[in-house]
Amino acid sequence: MKTNLKNWYPLVLLPIAATVVSALGAPSEADINVYPYDGAKLLVGQRVDLRVEASKLEDLKNYSISLNGKVLTDFVQTSQGAGQAEWTLRNISARGGANEVLVKLSDAKGEVTKRITWTGVVTTRPLKPAKNVILFIADGMSWNTMHGAQVIAKGYNPSNGMPRGKLEMEAGADGMASISTSSFDSYIVDSANSATSIASGQKAEVNALNVYRDNSADTLDNPRAEIITEILKRSRGASVGIVSNVFGTDATPAAFATHTRRRGDYASIADQYFKGNVKPDVLMFGGSEDFIPSTAGGSRRKDATDWIADSQKMGYTFVNNRTDLLKAGAPDKLFGLFHLDNFPSYLDRATWKRPEMLGNFTDLPYLWDMTNSAIGSLAKNDKGFFLMVEAGMVDKYLHPLDWTRAMFDVLELDKTVKLAKEWAAKRDDTLIIVTADHGHSLTVFGGYDTSKGPGVRDAAQVYEKAGFPNYYEKLDQNGIPLPTAARGLAVGFGAHPDYCETYVGREVFQAPTVSDGKGGFIPNPKVCSEPGAFQRIGNLPKDQSQGVHTADPVPLFAFGPGAKLFQGSMDQTEIFFAIAQAMGLNATQTK
Questions:
Q1: CATH top-level class for 31-121?
Q2: pLDDT of residue 41
Q3: N or C: fewer beta carbons within 10 Å in the chain?
Q4: Which pLDDT score, from 0 to 100, does residue 26 have?
């Protein structure tokens, strides 16, 4: 019988008599895998699913599975095929310090043993724990991308070469760290498993959200790791908000409320927002395509589920444009969908306003609008809140090498951080964290004299000829620089396909490549035909159409109570444990 692994099962850790394992002369040839994996760190009280998988079995005879010397029972046993067996036990948790899982089994060929260890992390409650956490994630923002945005926003004093200031996400930080990223199956991460590291403290495979590996084909039955928002809901009744300017079921927002092996399980992710353990009180996104029934235009669902209608029956106030969002005030529950897909960039919304980029979506909120509204709703809960805000379009534009749009989206985030810091400064109970999930290979290598036009290689100037960019001299209605600087940035990428370079941004977005019809990609002829464009030879495989993520470390800045826990060089999983400690979280409790 196939196990329904989509539900959480109660914890059972009953000692029973150990199963007698056959003492056969030769060892079994069976392979055993255990999840959570060997070396995992688990917050004491954090619930995880124990999964044991055996393969290459020849007529299984006996088995025993123990945790810290106590033989476990109530496993659900399954088999994925000949010579295979699996055992799954939901909702177990680790004790403080070393934890040992010992698996013994015997088959027709003999006996085999597998021993792994976990570390149960015990956090000490601080004298002044954070009641609230606001976590900002700039998707894809490396140190270089952040610094490039700082040069645009602040620039340098041309009389002495000193920086004119810092971004709000860095200025006055109480904690600062350089974050290394890696996944269970690669040292290059995607947005799903990198966000999983932050949300649950666990390493996961590429494309996985808060689950461990398993050997079944069903992407929704993998063993789960409890995430920070689930723990907060369960242990203290805190409120949860998720805000992003990308489509609502994308990896980063999904990581803070859902579980799946495949980030592309979009309909299930949408359903889990409203049916899962978290049930966020505030949800505001770009794309609506996974929340509307299959009969609605732009939907990619295959059923009649209508979360716009159903959410309102559950008590959510629904909004779909900036005007209505600003009128809505601070309802207890707020659900916003503002686009069918991702938001256009900040520059598209605030400066260029080209119909080719905006379409019918001309009343879109800024990231700070959504964040302010979310804080207003969530702060009504005297038990505290956790809010994740993603500037997701940074990554969406770095992939196609559109650094101009990406950096100005960093500046939209920076203004949002400024307003959040001002709100938190009045309370002294809120931890603010600004970080990224992974980096891109962008680098600023010089200045660009825009008076010489696009694509002029001699206009990309280095060393003393680079001078000082002067974007900051002209600001838009929101206090963010305009992109029309006389002296701009010269930017390149370390990982890219073949494409045509022009050095300057364009008001109508163009992809860097197009299909060659043979499974590969070639430079976009429209870009190559622009004045001054010249081809750059790529260094990625021909089947890559865009730039890719890198292994480079990413920045983290923290403000408020608990911020000093974020210092030096940290692995991405440590963010989860530092947040738990900053909040004085007791994951063994249930409210």
A1: mainly beta
A2: 98
A3: N
A4: 79
**Upstream peptide bond of 15 is cis (omega within 30 degrees of 0):** no
Report the relative pairing of strands 48-55 and 31-35 from DSSP bridges: antiparallel
> What torsion, rounded to 10 degrees, do the Cα atoms 32, 35, 37, 38 define?
-60
Taken as a whole, the chain contains a residue count of: 591
CA distances from 409 to 1, 211, 346, 467 (A): 50, 30, 6, 25
Q: 209 with 258: CB under 8 angstroms?
A: yes
Quote the CA–CA distance of 105 and 22 in Å, as a whole number.
8
Q: Which two tokens stand for residue 242?
A: 């998720």
Q: Which helix (H) or strand (E) holds 367?
A: helix 367-378
Q: Determine phi and psi for 251, rounding to 5 degrees.
A: -60, -45
Domain-wise residue ranges, the chain: 31-121, 132-286+320-442+554-582, 443-536
The pair phi, psi for residue 476, each rounded to 5°, is -90, -175
* Amino acid identity, position 99: N
Distance CA 122, CA 581 (A): 9
Amino acid at 338: F
**Which region, left, alpha or beta, applies to residue 190 given φ > 0 means left and ψ of -120 to 50 means alpha?**
beta
Distance of CA 228 to the CA centre of its chain: 13
CA 400 – CA 388 distance, rounded (Å): 25
User: How far out from the chain centre does Cα 342 lie?
Assistant: 15
**Joined tokens for residue 162:** 């000193």
According to the model, what pLDDT value does residue 25 have?
Answer: 55
Question: How many CA within 13 A on the CB side of residue 486?
Answer: 5
CATH for the stretch 132-286+320-442+554-582: 3.40.720.10
Long-range contact pairs involving 502-506 (C-beta distance under 8 Å, separation at least 24): 502/454, 502/455, 502/527, 502/530, 502/532, 502/533, 503/448, 503/454, 503/455, 503/456, 503/459, 503/460, 504/404, 504/448, 504/450, 504/454, 504/455, 505/347, 505/402, 505/403, 505/404, 505/405, 506/530
Query: Are the beta carbons of 244 and 250 closer than 8 angstroms?
Result: yes
pLDDT tens digits, 248-282 = 999 999 999 999 999 999 999 999 999 999 999 99
Residues in the chain where the model's pLDDT stays below 70: 1-25
Cα–Cα distance between 194 and 202 in angstroms, integer?
A: 9
Show the CA angle centred on residue 552, arms to residues 432 and 192, nearest 5°: 65
Contact 100/546 with Cβ under 8 angstroms? no
**How many beta carbons lie within 10 A of that of residue 276, not counting itself?**
19
Whose tokens are 């949408």? That residue is 270
Report which DSSP code applies to 252.
H
Give SS3 for 358. helix
The amino acid present at 415, given as its one-letter code, is K
How many Å apart are CA 112 and CA 114, to the nearest integer? 7
Query: What is the C-alpha separation between 457 and 331, in angstroms, rounded?
Result: 54
Backbone angles phi, psi at 199, to 5 degrees: -75, -35
Please give the Cα distance from 266 to 289 (Å, whole number): 9
